[in-house]
Amino acid sequence: MTSPGNEQRRTRLLAVTACPTGIAHTDMAAEKLMQAAAALGVDMKVETQGIHRGWKRAL
Hints:
Blueprint: E1 12-19, H1 25-39, E2 43-50, E3 54-56
Parallel strand pairs: 1-2
Antiparallel strand pairs: 2-3
């Protein structure tokens, strides 16, 4: 993306991962999403949610 000043801007993404139990899959998905974003040079924030432990990395 470019701005009117012809400066480069990084893409930024926001994601929420969740699962009914919120034990491991939520965090595993968040980690893989952040790794993929980093590999592509994309800024990403991920909030994780689970029924047993509530919200982690709340946005």
